[in-house]
Specification:
Chain lengths: 532, 123
């Protein structure tokens, strides 16, 4: 409650209370003033009425003594009449303003000032002319030297036949007004009563204003200020980021509806924020994924380009080397024939021939590698190529002690590519498998359709029971010239070439290996559209 | 006397052939280019031509076509590098008798040459 008056310009309740309070005070003041004024007017009117009748009564009382010309009697009468409480003075003047009789004897013989109500009641300018006012004013209220209000009533004593026919012959027939009777009556009793009434009224009004203000304040605080400050508090909380906050709902009026609407808005906001956060997270993940994809694609591109240029270089080198190698081989053989087979020279030459052979093998592989770029593309059946390749290797000595476990997909599994390249890849896989198992054991070959990241692939699995691949060798597996085979046996180009071909066709190679148990290679090629 | 002409732009390959085949009783003549080979063929007749597939001036296939057209009795064995196996196969289709791959051993060469003469003798 205190808060709302600390900064009234910031509080609706304070503004309301001040506005209503001010209006009430103003209205009450007007009302208070009007009542008091009306009361005073009414009471004064009553006083005038009673004063008037007092004057008439005085007039009638002295009528007899006046007619009979008994001035002492008249004087005595006036003194008697002025005795009751509240009657200050009763005087009778003649038309010139001379006091003829007065309840206060010392005033007799004096002349009334021309500014007095006695003169001004009838004349416009008593000092200068004898002009009369259109309407006579017979009374005036003034304050005496003691501060009390005095009601002075003046009434004319008209001429009448009894007056100018009386025995004393004082008055003439043509005189209209003989004189005036003037009564001065104290209003102090009435003023006291008025004051008391005014005080009581003021007290009532103040109490009324206070109690109404208090009641109004409490009501406004309860139905406006508290809910609004609750709402403001809630809004501050929400603005501060707390979306779990909800404003207490205490009524079903507009404030209650506002609070309810606010709460549901916050709930919506929270839902939206949660969703946005989720989206942001998803987006970040998506970006990270795409970035990784781009990075990988870029790396692949670089790798492919590297391999391609390496291949071109290798082809050139291989061709150039073949010629001198022919010379080396031929002349080593020729020379060898000149020595007895058991001689050291013959044995040394055998080494030369063997090493030249090795060179020749390396060159063959280099040339194979150089040919990794596709030549003649067409629709080929993977299952057919697998069968053909197995048929080819089964007759070779290397595979005499190897059993093939073949599980091919029912469909033909058609892909677009160069059949000889696929054969080269599969052959390479078989040779690697045989080498890993020391040419003994079982090779599992399986083909199937799979789906990965929303894309459909043909997967060709080659699983051996060999020595497996060491963890540290895994990243280098597809690098050209990387080999774990004994010196002279592998060139480190087989997998690299295979990988290059598969990549070129939009596929990839996956490896799973357990040291001592075996290795699985999964060659994945994109499934041609429209094929099963 | 069985006359053999070796056409190869590489001296060491020519020498290798000469040294392998000479002692075996063949009369070997050498040509360093396709053009030279063809001019020799115009003067003398040979039973066999050992022809390199890749040469800078006139391509082996072109030389092969000419030999087939002008001297149909002369057999041709192509000498190829590994990468040109397809071309060698094409050469066979075009009428070459056989092909050997570089680098070859004296035995490989002799076997291939002997085969040509044995077959032609039977024929």
């Amino acid at each position: 409650m205190k808060n709302i008056f600390r900064n009234p310009e910031k509080s609706i309740a304070a503004k309301l209370i001040i506005a209503i309070g001010a209006l009430m005070v103003i209205l009450t003041l007007i009302f208070w003033y009007a009542i008091l004024a009306k009361q005073e007017k009414d009471i004064t009117a009553i006083a005038i009425r009673y004063g008037g009748s007092f004057v008439n009564f005085t007039k009638e009382s002295i009528h007899h003594s006046m007619l009979n010309f008994q001035p002492d009697e008249t004087q005595r009468m006036l003194e008697t009449l002025s005795r009751p409480e509240g009657v200050q003075r009763v005087s009778i003047y003649n038309h010139k303003g001379h006091i003829l009789f007065s309840s206060q004897k010392q005033n007799v013989g004096q002349t009334v000032e021309k500014t007095s109500i006695v003169c001004k009641g009838c004349h416009t300018e008593p000092e200068k002319s004898s002009d009369l006012l259109p309407r006579q004013k017979k009374w005036v209220v003034y304050k005496n030297e003691k501060g009390f209000r005095i009601l002075q009533i003046v009434d004319e004593i008209p001429n009448e036949p009894a007056c100018y026919t009386a025995a004393c012959h004082i008055h003439q027939k043509n005189q209209k007004t003989l004189g005036f009777i003037d009564a001065q009556l104290s209003l102090s009793f009435l003023d006291e009563a008025l004051l008391r009434q005014g005080l009581a009224l003021t007290a009532y009004v103040v109490m009324f204003v206070l109690s109404v203000s208090l009641f109004l304040g409490i009501i406004i605080y309860k139905i406006v200020s508290r809910p609004v400050s609750d709402l403001v508090h809630g809004m501050e909380k929400v603005a501060g980021g707390n979306l779990d906050y909800s404003v207490p709902i205490k009524s079903i009026d507009e404030m209650g509806v506002l609070a309810q609407t606010f709460n549901s808005m916050i709930k919506d906001l929270k839902t939206a924020q949660d969703q946005r956060e989720k989206w942001t997270q998803t987006l970040e993940m998506e970006i990270a994924k795409k970035t990784e994809e781009i990075r990988r694609t870029h790396a692949n591109l670089v790798q492919t380009e590297k391999l391609a240029s390496l291949g071109r270089m290798a082809a050139g080198v291989a061709h150039e080397i073949n010629n001198p190698l022919t010379g080396v081989v031929t002349f080593a053989h020729l020379l060898k024939k000149r020595f007895p087979p058991d001689s050291t020279e013959a044995q040394d030459l055998t080494v030369i021939i063997e090493q030249a052979d090795r060179c020749s093998k390396i060159i063959r592989n280099l040339l194979t590698f150089a040919r990794a770029t596709p030549s003649e593309k067409g629709k080929v059946s993977i299952n057919d190529i697998i069968k053909r390749t197995i048929f080819l290797v089964q007759n070779q000595e290397k595979f005499h002690h190897i059993k093939f476990n073949i599980k091919l997909d029912e469909d033909q599994l058609v892909v677009v590519g160069d059949a000889s390249q696929f054969q080269q890849i599969f052959l390479n896989m078989f040779i690697n498998a045989a080498d890993a198992m020391n040419e003994r054991g079982q090779i599992t070959v399986a083909t199937r359709k799979i789906e990965e990241n929303g894309k459909r692939y043909i997967e060709i699995e080659f699983t051996d029971e060999g020595h497996g691949i060491k963890e540290e060798d895994m990243p280098k597996l597809f690098e050209p010239f990387f080999t774990t085979k004994p010196v002279g046996k592998g060139t480190g180009l087989g997998l690299s070439v295979s990988h290059g071909i598969v990549k070129h066709l939009g596929g990839h190679v996956k490896v799973k290996s357990a040291v001592g148990k075996g290795t699985s290679f999964f060659v994945r090629l994109p499934l041609t559209e429209g094929e099963k | 006397m069985k006359k053999i002409l070796v056409i190869d732009d590489e001296a060491i390959v020519r020498t290798s052939c000469e040294r392998t085949l000479g002692p075996e009783g063949y009369e070997v003549k050498l040509a360093a280019s396709g053009r030279e080979g063809l001019s020799i063929l115009e003067k003398e007749s040979f039973s066999l031509v050992l022809l390199d597939l890749k040469m800078p001036d006139v391509d082996g296939i072109e030389v092969l076509n000419k030999i087939n057209a002008i001297w149909p009795d002369t057999k041709v064995v192509m000498i190829t590098g590994y990468s040109t196996v397809e071309t060698a196969v094409q050469a066979l289709r075009l009428g070459a008798y056989n092909f050997i791959e570089k680098p070859f051993t004296p035995d490989t060469l002799l076997t291939a040459v002997k085969e040509v003469f044995e077959k032609s003798e039977i024929a």
